[in-house]
Design brief:
Strands 1-4-5-6-7 form a 5-stranded mixed sheet. Strands 18, 19, 20, 21 and 22 form a 5-stranded antiparallel sheet that branches. It has 398 residues and is mainly beta. It has a domain of 71 residues: Immunoglobulin-like (Sandwich), CATH 2.60.40. Helices cover 14% and strands 39% of the residues. It is built from 7 helices and 29 strands. The longest helix has 15 residues. A hairpin with a 2-residue loop joins strand 4 and strand 5.
Length: 398
């Protein structure tokens, strides 16, 4: 997944070429009537997503899946482009028909993983996960599949082995793993071993991912790349359901489509990769002698670099997290400490930088690059003067 991910521009260009070719003439007409089995992505001569599943050659099942995808609409009313979409897997799980479709939605420049359940010869979309990196499903290697008996994963043809959260290899049958226990609200590791291919001449022994938990709700995708393992360390002991909430780091910046918020879409602050944490200081609250730790969490979303603050109380109390903040010279984080809401201000300290706060504002923590103040009742402005310019942030009130 990683190597091809770095070639995302090339892959997207190739996908655009596929779209251009397949959108013309009798081929497009035939494909528009029926979704193809598999997906048109190659790594050298290796089909990354070949047709798989016990119903892959069942024409009636393919027709029924096609009709369900044709009727499906995204949260803002867009439809899938059938000629550039494909059925990744079609078979039975637990005796019930299941299909997984990579659906391209050009109107949103997004890919959707649709999970369809079959009954009585008909199919319906019952899960829909949005990938805002268009073309992601063409070069991904591990995709999450919720099921009644636990988390399953659909793996590409590049995957030789997949280790579950307990470090044990999962049984893979026709590309779909056996179910594995994944907690609802905690991040756990999933690691793939990738075979040698044209894009990975030496293969890859450990392609690391984090599963953010089974409570991750549609359309958010629960798998985050964790190439160095820093994400696993960063999220240790954190409740991912809190992180994903409207006031949590991952869910707090809504996506905007046109001039409106789109709360039913994946938030702009939703993580994709490069989760990491660094300590920024200590803080004692309520007159206590034992200080807790302040940390800065950072990650990459499709909208750029995001950061948030974590306060870990002394003695192992429940961590407190701020909403996300886009990368700024002066970072401002509302920190909802119970009974004592705070504002944490951070910046890259230098001899030429100085922070100004409203008159009379007590500084609970005051050191180079870090100031913590009580949350003001009304909106207040804070400023950071540097050699080049002055940066302003407003925090407080409702």
């Amino acid at each position: 997944m990683g190597s091809v991910r770095r070639r995302g521009t090339t892959v997207t260009a190739l996908l655009a070429l596929v779209l251009a070719v397949t959108a013309c003439g009798p081929i497009a007409e035939r494909q528009a009537r029926q979704l193809r089995m598999g997906y048109d992505s190659l790594d050298g001569t290796l089909p990354v997503w070949p047709p798989r599943g016990s119903l892959a050659e069942d024409t009636a099942a393919t027709d029924a899946v096609t009709e369900a995808v044709r009727a499906w609409r995204s949260p803002i009313g867009d439809r899938a482009h059938l000629p550039s979409s494909g059925i990744l897997w079609s078979g039975e799980v637990g005796g019930a028909p299941l299909a997984l479709v990579a659906a391209e939605v050009p109107g949103e420049a997004a890919s959707w993983l649709l999970q369809l359940a079959g009954s009585g010869g008909r199919y319906a979309v019952d899960r829909a996960t949005e990938y805002t990196d268009r073309g992601y499903l063409a070069y991904a290697d591990v995709l999450p599949v919720p099921s009644a008996d636990g988390r399953r994963y659909l793996v590409s043809n590049r995957v030789q082995r997949l280790l579950g959260p307990d470090g044990r290899a999962l049984r893979i049958t026709d590309g779909l793993t056996a179910p594995v226990a994944v907690p609802e609200c905690a991040a756990v590791p999933v690691t793939a071993t990738l075979r040698r291919t044209e894009s990975l001449p030496r293969g890859r022994a450990a392609d690391r991912l984090l599963d953010l938990g089974t409570a991750t709700s549609d359309p958010r995708h629960p798998l985050v790349r964790d190439e160095t393992g820093s994400g696993r360390r960063a999220l240790n002991g954190l409740d991912t359901c809190v992180l994903a909430g409207e006031r949590g780091p991952f869910g707090s910046i809504p996506r905007r489509i046109g001039d409106r918020d789109a709360p039913a879409s994946v938030p702009e602050s939703w993580p994709m990769e490069k989760l990491a944490v660094r300590g920024i200081g200590e803080m004692a609250l309520g007159g206590g002698d034992d200080p807790g730790d302040l940390e800065q969490l950072s990650w990459e979303s499709d909208a750029g670099t995001m950061t948030a603050v974590i306060y870990r109380p002394a003695g192992g109390g429940t961590p407190v997290v701020s909403p996300a903040d886009r990368s700024n010279p002066l970072q401002a984080y509302p920190l909802p400490v119970p009974g004592q809401p705070l504002v944490v201000l951070t910046w890259r300290s230098s001899r030429d930088s100085s922070l100004s706060v409203p008159p009379g504002t007590p500084r609970l923590v005051d050191r180079p690059g870090l100031v913590v103040v009580p949350m003001p009742a009304a909106k207040q402005s804070f400023s950071l003067a540097t050699a080049e310019k002055t940066h302003y942030r407003s925090v407080g009130g409702r």
